[in-house]
């Protein structure tokens, strides 16, 4: 692999102008395609074939129009008054009529309609249900603005008026000030690492080209298939982080080769063959982990994984072609002036300073048993909250928004459960009569506050019951109520009874993800073992890496539970409210952290393996490899942390917890597992760390370290690079 990649790097160097132009052309073409072909994303999550999802589709067929997006306009009378007073009643009825005439609205109910009143017993709070002809997530910004303007005008009547519901949910944003700060921090880390701001800017620019192409490609895909609104943000966050890091690894090795006396062409080829091999291997782990989400069997999760994986593939291709091409233009200017060939200090800087990290690894490996124990205990302690983790798909509205105030008004007027109603669909002959007979038994279940009268369809073959829980939509008692309803309805004869509604959908998706989590974790752990055995041709090194990954995941999710569920340090991350984690968080975090943890394992341990293969004693090989790779791993981790952390303060609810977990996971993995646990464990193992049983020696040699490049002298013959000499 190293020889092939070195040839790719050499070809990119020789034909650097066409390579750069091709990538720019792809970027521009992606932008044009995104403008002309982009479609809408969906903010809803469901699993085809589940009872709740199927029942929602059946409701749309049986009742018509129910499947459209809806909003609730909540009205509250002034203190000491009711909505039924003549002046207030006129304002309520007038608002309902105005809402019905808004663009895209199919119907708007009158809270004071005697046939179907929607007011609390005290007549102080009521609501109008505004139904659109668009599906959830497809109400246009213009239609949302018209609704919000009508609500704002209604406040002039003296009523308190707020609006909530899926029809007024804002799409996720990418590129806000918080994300920009993360990119700026990444740029500063690169500038310190390289000692030159221009070099840092070029590294960042190549990464932005890759992530731009990836996100634009996803945007184009929305014109042909429905994708989750979270997908582009996730792809941008992950693609930017790995794009910067992959370029960093290749540029750093290129600079090392230049310092060793190699010419520019040879340095490009060797860097692409060595660091590029690690980039391909690391990128492959991320891609497999993300595509592996398909085994869960949840379509929207599969789409998110495949889209993010495609962005990673683009980042790898950029690192292997565009970065070598740009380095060809830079040449020796990639080095600070004092380190360039011919300068007085050229070649002296490496020996001049042993550095903090050299002393660090010496201490860790000298006191290996103590440091290993401390690392395990520290990560295990942080992971404790993980065992209290709860998940849900119900997202809290933004703090101090009209959506949050609408929910509060409904909870005060009708009870907490009114914000998470459960719908029961009865289908079959005599469905309305059966539904009426079920109202009594359903109302006697625990946590039921109210069961509304049955609503039949036009031909009497279906009926709807709305069950209002006493507890809120994210409360475990509500989840139990969904299960109790299904148990009760399972014995209904002659009709088909289904439990649905957004609360039931959330419960079903969360349960499916929770059940898939152990399976997926076993998959990625098994994959990590196989991959690392192939890379390092060892059994114990992969075992250490995988155990470190498990500790990383536990600590990252434990810290996320402590902050987002328990509320610890909530102000630091600008958290609006605490509660269960979004159901997607655990499984996505495992998949992404797996790839990133293997990145650091491969980049760090491959240099140790390289030193050991050259005959260095085991302990000294660990220290030598650490001194060579650790500075780059530290810089890469700081960059990834800053990019992920930039999505936390102002991120949408779905992305916020995922970004926090990834940022925490990067800190734990890079600075505890790879900087402490791995060198300490390998030092304890000594030469046994590189042992491979005789019966496994048939395994292919991946040559991540680029040993094959040493066996072929470097020369350029007729413009074709045959090999390269390592320095």
UniProtKB/TrEMBL annotation:
User: Gene3D superfamilies annotated for this entry?
Assistant: Multidrug efflux transporter AcrB transmembrane domain
Output the Pfam families linked to this UniProt entry. MMPL
What would be one Gene Ontology cellular-component term for the protein? plasma membrane
Asked if the Swiss-Prot or TrEMBL record annotates the protein with the keyword Hydrolase, the reply is: no
Question: What are the SSD domain coordinates in residue numbering?
Answer: 182-329
Q: Which InterPro entries match?
A: MMPL_dom (IPR004869), Mycobact_MmpL (IPR050545), SSD (IPR000731)
Record membrane topology: Multi-pass membrane protein
Q: Coiled-coil region(s) at which residues?
A: none
Alphabetized UniProt keyword annotations: Cell membrane, Membrane, Transmembrane, Transmembrane helix
Q: Where are the transmembrane segments?
A: 180-197, 204-222, 234-252, 264-294, 306-330, 369-388, 517-536, 543-568, 580-598, 629-648, 660-685
> Which compartments does it reside in?
Cell membrane
Q: Which family does it belong to?
A: Belongs to the resistance-nodulation-cell division (RND) (TC 2.A.6) family. MmpL subfamily.
Under which name does UniProt file this protein?
RND superfamily putative drug exporter
